[in-house]
Design brief:
single chain, 694 residues, alpha+beta, 6-stranded antiparallel β-barrel, 4-stranded antiparallel β-sheet, 29 strands, zinc ion binding
Amino acid sequence: MAAAKRKLVIVESPAKARTIGKFLGRGYKVEACNGHVRDLPKSQMGVDVEHDFEPKYITIRGRGEVLDRLRREAKAASQILLATDPDREGEAISWHLAYILGVDGSTPCRVEFHEITDKAVKEAVKHPRPLDMKRINAQQARRVLDRLVGYKISPILWAKVKKGLSAGRVQSVATRMIVDREDEIESFIPEEYWEVSAQLESGGQRFSARPAGGNIAGGEMARKTVEKIKATDFTVTQARRAEKRKNPAPPFTTPNLQQEAARKLRFTTAKTMQIAQQLYEGVDIEGEGAVGLITYIRTDSVRLSNEAVAQARAYIPERYGPAFLPPSPPVYKGRSRAQDAHEAIRPTDARRRPEDIKASLSRDQYNLYRLIYLRFIASQMAPALYDTLTAELSGGDMTLRFYGEHKKFSGFTSVYEEGTDEEVESAETTLPNLQEGDVARVLDVQSEQHFTQPPPRYTEASLVKALEERGIGRPSTYAPTISTIISRGYVSREQRRLYATTLGRMVTQMMRENFSDIVDVQFTAGVEDKLDAVEEDALPWREVIREFYGPFEQSLEKAEQNIEKVKVADEVSDEVCELCGAPMVYKMGRFGRFLACSRFPECRGTKAIQIEIDAPCPKCGAPLLEKTSRKGRKFYGCKRYPDCDFVSWDRPVREACPRCGSHMTLKENRRGRWYLCSNESCRYRAEAPEENEQ
């Protein structure tokens, strides 16, 4: 008797295939297509402009073996179910698979799930649907637009500047934003201001207050203000008490997750998405097997399912007490441009606590899962409550102001608080019992000079936030955009901050002068809105391309004539080539910047860039270098190696241990930063100052 035919389920990755195969059992065969199987050709533009922008798709090189396997399995299957990711890109992959395998896309062949759990997968395969051509057309429009921009502008950059450069709709705007920020910093003129703070006492209580007018412009005026306060008796003329509520942040969207992982875990956007993908596709958990730990990771929605909310509301009073559960679930409003097709990023099961599965996860997986889990739980908790006091103290024509707040109920803050890109000065935690009519005695007055600061350089976190706020790109594009502009040499990342390079400035200026729309923030955001309209079936996708291409073609013709060939001079370093003695210059390669001989190609000498840290070698006093191991892990070694063999995985600092005199190292994790003595028998520990992370 012939064996019963099985249903074929096709997903993108082998990891996802293993997890889903475990859930579906013997009646199904789950195979992976390894991402896109058809795309526009790399060797040519692949868009027929003369025939209404018809795309020319070809099978991606190297996918032949995968497709042969899928064809064999498809022939033997009773039904083919396409279960790629639940977004535009995933819908397009399913569409291309349907074409190659001869599946009728108008029949129920598409399976969509937003979390890889036993229940979600089994429920999804029971309810397949036809392919969604609205999503597919939105993806085609984006792909064709990006191809037209990239394949029309990039050759001009190659001819006029240098080979290997590229332009793109989103990457060009992101580069321009970083260049603009660099220009703002360079043109910034600091302005002096003074902060004056008075220490006062009333009824045995000490507190501080500041002049009601705020900061003071000049040193002389600050000095006079200090003398005036010292000579004045103050009376409390107003004391207002109130209760302040601080609500929790919503559960994670993709941009929020990238921002918080950068702030709290120091992950790059690319690393965040890589680890999140692993958690989504499935991890082997002891006692459970492979299971998806979080919901779909590319989303800009803050919506949660009723089931997820119910799980959180059952867990919160049990774990933290009834007072921490609000009477009704919090409701969060998403961004106006948000697409609500997916839930927010959350754990697939609130009962699966991070500490319970820590042994089954890598360190990075655990840290990111914990971040997602705690944010989700906190989002469903009661607000934190604060008692606040605002007081005014008057004396003559001088008024001082006091504001303080005291947390009386921790609420969600006992679980999670959102990070910030700027340092925030907290108000005093104890409130004086001030009443109107109380007399306050001045104990001391201090003034401190400050200067206004330029806007901070972008970090990956703050750039993602800025792109999201301006409606540029979508959750799936932020990480690859940042990776691209760094790999192209337009932007460099140093100590987690993004700097515009000379090349980035030059290309941006060229784009501004010749393709102003491409680097215009509002124009690019408008294109995203039109792509959304295509997905909503409110706009034909080819119309979006037609509207864009007419003005773009005119810009191309002018650029060909107007742009003069420029030579980008290599930045010369202080290093000399060990092979021929010529100066070495900075170059950009696949793995970042490196040093190359200025006589290339006659001499092919290269050298890794040495980064000195601000600490001497504990053995010989020479400078220390930050290096990278073959596995990509940072370590620190003496510049005089091999004459001096000092090496350390932990970063040494200038400070010596006050207890034993040994060198101290900097340790840091999500809980903070501290100095630790390197002497195993001492291990003295002290708090390290926080970086001014912007």
